[in-house]
Amino acid sequence: MKTTGFMGPCYAKAMATRYRFGLEEYERLFRGVRDVELLAGEVYRMSPIGPKHAWSVARLNRLFTEALGDRAVVWPQNPIRIPPHSEPQPDLALLRPKSYGEGLPTPEDVLLLVEVAETSLEHDQGLKLSLYAQAGIPEVWVLDLKENRLHVYRTPKAGVYTEHRILLPGEEAEPLAFPGVRIPWS
């Protein structure tokens, strides 16, 4: 790399280096800051939530709560801790039934994550899905509001989901952790 003036090659290289936040540092610096999440050490501003997105999350929250009762904790739009560099905020999570008042859930607690995508489909099916697979989260649903379809990802192996199904309106989804429970997602 050729540089001019007082900036030598070391300075130019340092400017291109990204800084990765750890969980503790992120929580200290961004506590109380709304609409941000930590993904693979980088802070991302979350997309604004429109009415269709909000309604979809509220509806799924109600459907899961009614169908599962106390068999799972329904965790809407709250963070999940994925050490050492991630704290995503999925739109909905089904967690193992226990108290999370003393610490955020980790991948071992997660039965299912749901992302609702109106403007964030590429992000949700790219970086976030990869992060969830690497963490070993057994199942992720991505609700594509624009195309009105549900992507069901299961069976993470070597950092990717080996099973991907697309459900169309009228088809019901069945969480892997709860055989026989059918969710009319559309």
TrEMBL record:
<dbReference type="InterPro" id="IPR011335">
    <property type="entry name" value="Restrct_endonuc-II-like"/>
</dbReference>
<dbReference type="InterPro" id="IPR012296">
    <property type="entry name" value="Nuclease_put_TT1808"/>
</dbReference>
<dbReference type="InterPro" id="IPR008538">
    <property type="entry name" value="Uma2"/>
</dbReference>
<dbReference type="Pfam" id="PF05685">
    <property type="entry name" value="Uma2"/>
</dbReference>
<protein>
    <submittedName>
        <fullName>Hypothetical conserved protein</fullName>
    </submittedName>
</protein>
<feature type="domain" description="Putative restriction endonuclease">
    <location>
        <begin position="23"/>
        <end position="184"/>
    </location>
</feature>
